[in-house]
Amino acid sequence: MRAIAHARAVVPTTGAQRSSPRARVATTPRRAGRTSVTSSPPRTGNLGVPVAARAAPLKSRRAIVVLNAAADVPSSSSTDAKGAVSVGALVLALGVAMLLASADRTIFAAAALGIKSELGMSMRDVATAQSAFLWGYGVTQLAAGAASDRFGGARTLLGGLFAWSLAIAATPLSAMASAPTTALAVSRFMFGAASGCALPASAAAVAAHVPPERRSGALSAIFAMFNCGSAFGLAAAGGLIATFGWKMIFYGFGVVGAVWAIGAWAAMPESVKTWRAPESSKKDIVVDENGEEMTDLSPEIVTQLLALLWCHVVVNWGFMILQSWLPIYLANDLGMSISSSGVIGALPWLFTAFMSFSSGQVADKLIARGMERWKVRRLAMNVATIGPALGLFALKFTSTPAVALACIIATTGLQACSVAGYHSYLQDIAPSRAGAILGFTNTVGVAASIFANIVTGASVEATGAFSETFMLTAAMYASSCLVWNYFLKGKVLFP
């Protein structure tokens, strides 16, 4: 049996980069007849359940270990001589970018009825314009995830912010085109393509620069600002559109985004601006017990990824319907005016921001008190799926504005707990591939969101109400809860 003498392990630190000791070869008793490679300190099999460092018989024929081909991965809050990474400053820079990403989406929802009237569009045309954004958004997910993991999430996100802000500012120009509906769809596609980096870039930035014990809080703060963007966009758009018309809101938000991208980039320390993925994270080798390279994904890993994929599809489906159609639902089903639906529609997103931030803080405290991380993520996902399912189900049986608004607030707020569930879980089970995995699952999730928008537009045009859409979405949330609890139990996939 071939011993592996040059395996390297990674020890997360909160200071400068440091390498771990060389891995040692532990020989099992003779009856076991195999050798396993361990490192100091040992990795965990299931999150929160340490694997003993002593020799032990292997339960399967293949002992899987990751051998880094070059230098060790840097610590999660790496520093260099040119400037240290401040977690607070990083969260602020990325959080405002995410706030603008969300606000730029919702201003179209607030302006949709005005655009529909001016351009002579049908409800199906509005759904097509909504879907055009998602087509662009989905196209760049995989590339954005790979770029974020390799070149750094911060630079990818801020570059994307500058590009999509230009697309937002150009949106009103579609009204001057000979085919305005087509021009609007193209501008929405370009906005989506540029903003496709938002989620994978944020995940990669947190994984690269934030210590593991602070990641739930950092992610929850970033997503809280993302949800504040929905509230901010709706509240600002409602009044501004009523006063200045729908075009001015796009010009204003485009300028603000471009200015923030330039300013935030200038303020970033050199350690963020020049960050590159270490060679080891570019070429990880997975070997079996005999030191032979393994390139295939095991059925267990594939099953885990498929479960994550479905759960992300449901997260995207529910979120996109609420974000894209809430102002129209308030005006169409509850009879509110455009200006009032924008202001009132901001309330659910303010509660969503609060729940997003609070869930991350609670998750970090539960972990600090000794609760296993995967169980904390499961608890968060149970809240993020069961709560929205009940809230949407109740909407079918009420037409009272106050009751309906309460159900919507509960639904949007509770689904935000997925930040401390799904998104933090990815950091736990695949820190070296968080951006790439999120890019993949979000690509499929965006495709589902495109279908959701088309289905919603057709359903509302045919039935005149949103009740059927809400019932379907409630059923999907319930299925996500079942899938998560059965399949996802903290198995580390990519250390």
Automatic annotation (TrEMBL):
Single GO MF descriptor: symporter activity
Cellular compartments annotated: Membrane
Keyword check for Transmembrane helix: yes
Domain Major facilitator superfamily (MFS) profile: residue ranges: 90-492
Topological type in the membrane: Multi-pass membrane protein
Residue intervals passing through the bilayer: 83-101, 157-177, 189-210, 222-242, 248-268, 305-326, 338-358, 379-397, 403-422, 434-458, 470-488
Listed SUPFAM superfamilies: MFS general substrate transporter
InterPro entries: MFS, MFS_dom, MFS_Na/Anion_cotransporter, MFS_trans_sf
GO CC terms of this entry: membrane
UniProt keyword list: Membrane, Symport, Transmembrane, Transmembrane helix, Transport
Pfam families recorded: MFS_1
Renumbered residue ranges of the record's region Disordered: 1-48
Family: Belongs to the major facilitator superfamily. Sodium/anion cotransporter (TC 2.A.1.14) family.
PANTHER family: SODIUM-DEPENDENT PHOSPHATE TRANSPORT PROTEIN 1, CHLOROPLASTIC, SOLUTE CARRIER FAMILY 17
Name of the molecule in the record: Major facilitator superfamily domain, general substrate transporter
Organism: Ostreococcus tauri
